[in-house]
Amino acid sequence: MSHNTFGHLFRVTTWGESHGPAIGCVVDGCPPLIPLTEADLQPWLDLRKPGGSRFVTQRNESDTARILSGVFDDGAGPVTTGTPIAIEIQNEDQRSKDYGEIARAYRPGHADVTYQAKYGVRDHRGGGRSSARETASRVAAGAVARKVLGQGVSIRAGVVQLGSHRIEDAAVDFGATYDNPLFAASAEVGPAWEAYLDGVRKAGSSVGAVVALEITGVPAGWGAPLYAKLDAELAAAMMSINAVKGVEVGDGFGAAALSGESNADEMRMGEDGQPVFLSNHAGGILGGISTGQAITLRVVFKPTSSILTLRQTVTRDGTETDLRTKGRHDPCVALRGVPVVEAMAACVLADAMLRHRAQVG
Prior knowledge:
This protein is an alpha+beta fold. The protein is built from seven helices and 18 strands. It has helices at residues 38-48, 112-119, 135-149, 190-202, 230-239, 260-263, 334-360; strands at 5-6, 11-16, 22-28, 65-67, 71-73, 78-80, 85-90, 154-162, 165-166, 209-216, 244-249, 267-269, 275-277, 285-286, 289-290, 295-301, 311-314, 320-323.
């Protein structure tokens, strides 16, 4: 399988399968002398790991990260050495027997049929490489990227729409995201959203969601035209996440309803002699280059494909059948997708920062 690596100067390669002995990543291109320990990785992995509430899969994984290389303690504390950082996360709670029925039958909405068509073989145990379990490796890499970026860059995300239930833009509060089990960017929607998702979960069904992302502290100038646009690379990173089917930057599709006058982000001179934008319809990126404003994206997750309702499908030998997906699954995969969205943004931004510094000093 190819294309397991992304990034240019800050490069991330992930490896491993859902039901293999372990998963992990190799981060190459991290500058040296950055303080880094496993304790820097674990809080972010704990946010993504399963079993945190009744609204996510009950697979019991500690997602404990182990740094195998690329860090050295010369007496003043562990720091990066500039060499590849290898991180391992053990798989501890595989239940491969749950997937016996899909060894031959393709699950609707999953990558089973496409993996079989491309490779002629697939690991049916939890989806193998196509499982969302792989995203734990991305979160570990994102934790390293945050250390590269430093505290000046803030990356925050949260669920702003669950099924048909939506948080109004003015009510979005990213500070509330990790204080509720639904990762909602609001403290006000909890009871109503929990009751709604409980109904979905008990019915054995699933729903989609929208995750909003806000990045502040990125200076003007990151990204490059034409084929390294910052918004294009952020969008590609988001689209690589399991179950993501759409990305908007700034006003996104809403811009189609605006006039040129409404959409233009007008400017005036600030007290520091630098341009000040009067609006941010562009989402903090113009011509593929950051403007210095907040970078805003919205990421659409489809409903989890694994549901208990019988669905029509076919088997590898061409037999038509009905299939009910067993196992432990999220009624809304977007919930644990929030820290993954943040991690992928961090990796893209760390790469953009290093490339900007390499080109312009």
